[in-house]
Amino acid sequence: MTATEFQNGDALMLIDLQNDFCPGGELPIGGGDEVVETVNPWIERAQAAGIPVFASRDWHPEGHVSFEAQGGEWPPHCVQDTEGAAFHPRLRLPGDAVKVTKGVRFDQDQYSAFDQTGLADELRRRGVSRIWVAGLAQDVCVEATALDARHEGFEVMLFAEGTRPVSAEGGRKALERMREAGVEVVNGG
Ligand code: VGL
Ligand code: ZN
User: Fold this and answer.
1) Which residues are catalytic?
2) Considering the entire predicted model, what is its pTM?
């Protein structure tokens, strides 16, 4: 599958395109900023096709359980209302983009945009049956979101050029697990 053909019943799902996941941020992912440039034309195409654009954001309280000082595995990142938690300035999110906020629980992390957010019901309510996924990080929140989407019964298309992993090896394994779960990996835009 190569060409993007958005159709009725689709949604574009952009995962965590926030400053802290881009070079210069607190948890930078190599090429994170390139992903922002890559997804912009897809946003335009989604709008032209009249399909909804969803954008998730990691939105942690200060001292979140996922941070190293609290025994978690990550440096502090995407702390609520900081510049690092803001969407990347070059991301051209439409005004009617639907924001999905996660990672807000004090007692546990939420990698997946579906985790306790009500997203699956909201997508169904809008008649969405297939989602096109891009964003960061391929081996963390993108994977978790794509797998949950499959479990919820959605068709899932992953833009290979529209995502980057924390580690190359992690990225390869994530791709494998996503493919096994029925995620279709799309090359090119
Ligand atoms: C993420 C690590 C920690 C992500 C979020 O968005 O992929 N990664 N929190
Ligand atoms: Zn996080």
Assistant:
1) 16, 102, 141
2) 0.97
